[in-house]
Amino acid sequence: MTPKKLAALFVPAVLVIAIDQLTKWIIRTTPELHRYDVIDGWLAFYYTQNDGMAMGIDIFSTPVVSSISILATIGILSYLLYTMDKSPVKYLIFMGLVIGGALGNITDRLTMGFIEGYGGLLDGHVVDFIHFNLEINDWPVFPYIFNMADVAISVSIITLLVFNKQLMPHHEEEVLEEPVSEEESTVEETQAPVVEEKPLEEK
User: Fold this and answer.
1) Fewer CB within 10 Å: C terminus or N terminus of the chain?
2) Catalytic-labelled residue, pool 85, 123, 128, 138
3) pTM for this structure?
């Protein structure tokens, strides 16, 4: 576990958390940006809060979703630290973006309940605001609203899948041949085929 690899994992994570929390704070505290067209008909800010899972999946209660998110992130981070010595730096950078995105949304789940006064720890809702509002024949191309943490997670996972051979760690098994002793080698080299002599027949 070298300082270079630790930096490759944690520097991107800290940057994503900072960018994610800063953009959420700006949107949340600026009413003019709650409904704002960035590119008319394509991209808009649409401030909302998500109390469930990604993409509007609403199966569990908010505290359960928060607990699952925290446990999953701890598990992934523990695995990354355990396998860090065998992991390439490029892979750790992208996984740092994933960890940063996860921690950015977990920060909302731990704090937003207190900030807005509707709940306690684990009751917080995740702030979302980026909306691709393009529609084709009155059908939304991508109806989900997301945030910068989601962008970091999605871009990293897609990049790791597309460039799997270049970025993902591949632990090749080393095939070790059984060593041959010097004595056995000498015997094999000097051993000549034995030709059996037949006795001469009397005429």
Assistant:
1) C
2) 128
3) 0.80
- With a cut of 60, say whether residue 189 has pLDDT above it: no
150 is catalytic: yes
Quick: pLDDT tens for 166-182: 999 876 554 445 555 55
Active site residue 51: no
Indicate which residue of 20, 108, 123, 150 is catalytic.
150
Q: What's the chain's length in residues?
A: 203
